[in-house]
Design the sequence.
């Protein structure tokens, strides 16, 4: 673990005499390796480690009794600070049903998360959700959402043919007619470099003015996380991020990277395949996990 | 002898950064940089301008594999089992494989819909089977996946199929009971058809980071993976974790997924892959 390797380094350094600032840089290489193995973005790490080094030097870590522990503490504090304040509120629309749009790469967990989020808002906040099947590409995507809706007892709005933009737009009137006060759009997975499909998402945003736009990301993403997330953010101005599959053992460095690059809040995490497996995001817990 | 000075550490840092950004992981990247430094010191690399080519060749050698083809049974049916974590691209990869065997090679293909858990998993595979023009064996949702395989294996033999491809539910390698289930599915197929499964493919999402190495190890311990499919390589992720996987587990990439259509499957070419990785 990082704690062990840092304490080993400092034991060896003490053996050689006094610890200098140069040693701090050596130690930072070890921290860098640990965080790269946890999938933290190489680019985000450059700035992060510079901040941590300055703090370590400023706090005169080299004079402390346990410099290894002090450095770990600084790294942990900086990680928690970077994760941001807990912000899991959903922007509710006072004038019409609240609209939430889910977007993201293929297979990230959007359709499942639509069901989980609907259930969360219903159970926790007494809302009445409408699920919208706006993925008209993937074979049986509509079936998948309908089965989820049926299992939870929530209506699913879908059309037999028709473009996602229109489906989303018409679902708002449907929700108003049927007394649903929150609408969740399930969209098809797509690459951030697929211009026509990114345009389709921008169209949906323009036509429906969502109250929340959630980027749904797989917790096991590697270095490419910053590329896809920053492109989705740039094109859609996302309002929040959901990380899925955190029930696995991926260290989740992408959470730190995407948070750092987009500056947007991580609101929820998916922790299992079943529809009750969603939790509000807790920054400190994530920092512990990334540090291993 | 000609004095050539020491290697440019700056240039090595640049190359290390390229490898890191490609998801090769810090330990693999550092060990390769060490190899470059050594090769330069030994005179194997004569000029700094040769370093990148040397690196490219080294990576190609690492990834190259004698047997890159999919294994084939001595007598049909060839059985291919497909596994991987949730959402990696298994079902779509199977559709592509089915299309290739049926429409490019004229083979008789049968699909086993052994994902009996996820909403609309069977419907998804069935739609693909119809689209591509192959047969499918499926049970009710919630049925025992091993039972589906059992029936599919019988059907493959009875109907004189050339290829049987088994789709399994996505699962995380941390779910011990589900990994046991996967092992059970493999054993059912082994018992029913001699030599089966002839190919066990682990589908990895090209966007995966270092967890790809853990996935490969755990899935291989459970069902003896014979090859990787690197899906979603049409995105911007480089999939460099496969270098560590080959280095540490000797599991080769056999196929790459480059899109969402039935035709979007290609054999793995180490030279093309390395060129894209280093750009
Ligand atoms: N273990 C686990 N599996 C999850 C989680 N969220 C989603 N999944 C699984 O991940 C897979 C993909 O989920 P989907 O909801 O179909 O993903 P998607 O983003 O809608 O996929 P596309 O529509 O094809 O882009 C399924 O097998 C889900 O059951 C999670 O939090 N934990
Ligand atoms: N761009 C791109 N998308 C792909 C590729 N392969 C699969 N996909 C997409 O990834 C998503 C998930 O694919 P699936 O085949 O459902 O994945 P899976 O592993 O069977 O998922 P589960 O059964 O839920 O675990 C779908 O939207 C596919 O169209 C690929 O090579 N490129
Ligand atoms: Mg979906
Ligand atoms: Mg599947």
Sequence:
């Amino acid at each position: 673990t990082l704690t062990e390797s840092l304490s080993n380094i400092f034991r060896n350094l003490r053996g050689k005499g006094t610890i200098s600032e140069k040693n701090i840089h050596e130690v930072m290489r070890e921290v860098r390796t640990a965080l790269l193995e946890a999938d933290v973005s190489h680019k985000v790490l450059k700035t992060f480690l510079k901040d941590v080094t300055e703090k370590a030097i400023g706090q005169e870590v080299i004079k402390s009794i346990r410099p290894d522990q002090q450095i770990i503490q600084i790294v942990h504090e900086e990680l928690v600070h970077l994760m941001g304040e807990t912000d899991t509120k959903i922007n509710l629309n006072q004038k019409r049903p609240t609209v939430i749009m889910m977007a993201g790469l293929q297979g990230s967990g959007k359709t499942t998360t639509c069901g989980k989020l609907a259930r969360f808002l219903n159970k926790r906040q007494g809302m009445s959700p409408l699920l919208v099947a706006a993925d008209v590409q993937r074979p049986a995507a509509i079936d998948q959402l309908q089965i989820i809706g049926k299992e939870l007892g929530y209506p699913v709005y879908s059309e037999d043919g028709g473009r996602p933009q229109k489906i989303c737009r018409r679902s708002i009137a449907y929700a108003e007619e049927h007394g649903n006060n929150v609408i969740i759009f399930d969209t098809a997975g797509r690459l951030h470099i697929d211009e026509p499909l990114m345009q389709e998402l921008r169209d949906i945003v323009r036509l429906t003015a969502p109250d929340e736009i959630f980027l749904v990301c797989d917790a096991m993403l590697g270095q490419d996380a910053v590329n896809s997330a920053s492109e989705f953010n740039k094109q859609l101005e996302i309002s929040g991020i959901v990380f899925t599959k955190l029930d696995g053992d991926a260290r989740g460095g992408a959470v730190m990277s995407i948070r750092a690059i987009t500056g947007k809040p991580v609101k929820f995490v998916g922790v299992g395949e079943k529809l009750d497996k969603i939790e509000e995001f807790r920054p400190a817990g994530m920092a512990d996990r990334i540090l291993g | 002898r000609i004095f050539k000075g020491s290697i440019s550490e700056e240039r090595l840092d640049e190359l290390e950064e390229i490898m890191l950004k490609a998801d090769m992981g810090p330990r693999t990247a550092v060990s390769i940089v060490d190899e470059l430094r050594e090769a330069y010191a030994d005179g194997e690399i004569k000029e700094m301008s040769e370093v990148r080519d040397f690196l490219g060749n080294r990576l190609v050698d690492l990834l190259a594999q004698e047997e890159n083809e999919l294994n084939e049974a001595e007598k049909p049916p060839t059985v291919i089992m497909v596994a991987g974590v949730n959402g990696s691209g298994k079902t779509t990869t199977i559709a592509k494989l089915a299309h290739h065997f049926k429409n490019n090679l004229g083979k008789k293909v049968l699909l086993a819909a052994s994902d009996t858990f996820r909403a609309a998993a069977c419907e998804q595979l069935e739609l693909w089977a119809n689209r591509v023009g192959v047969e499918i064996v499926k049970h009710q949702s919630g049925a025992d996946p091993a039972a589906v395989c059992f029936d599919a294996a019988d059907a493959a033999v009875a109907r004189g199929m050339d290829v049987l491809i088994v789709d399994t539910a996505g699962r995380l390698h941390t779910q011990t009971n589900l990994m046991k289930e996967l092992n059970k599915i493999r054993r059912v197929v082994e018992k029913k058809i001699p030599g089966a499964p002839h190919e066990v493919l682990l589908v990895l999402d090209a966007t995966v980071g270092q967890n790809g190495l853990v996935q490969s190890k755990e899935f291989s311990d459970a069902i003896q993976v014979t090859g990787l499919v690197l899906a979603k390589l049409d995105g911007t992720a480089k999939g460099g974790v496969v270098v560590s996987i080959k280095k540490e587990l000797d599991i080769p990439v056999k196929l790459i997924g480059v899109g969402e259509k039935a035709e979007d499957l290609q054999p793995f070419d180490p030279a093309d892959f390395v060129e894209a990785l280093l750009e």
About this structure: The interface with chain A takes residues 17, 20-23, 25-27, 30, 85-89, 117-120, 123-124, 127-128, 131, 172-174, 205-212, 214, 232, 234-238, 241, 260 of chain B (CB under 8 Å). Strands of chain B lie at 78-83, 109-113, 135-137, 163-167, 199-205, 227-231, 253-257, 265-267.
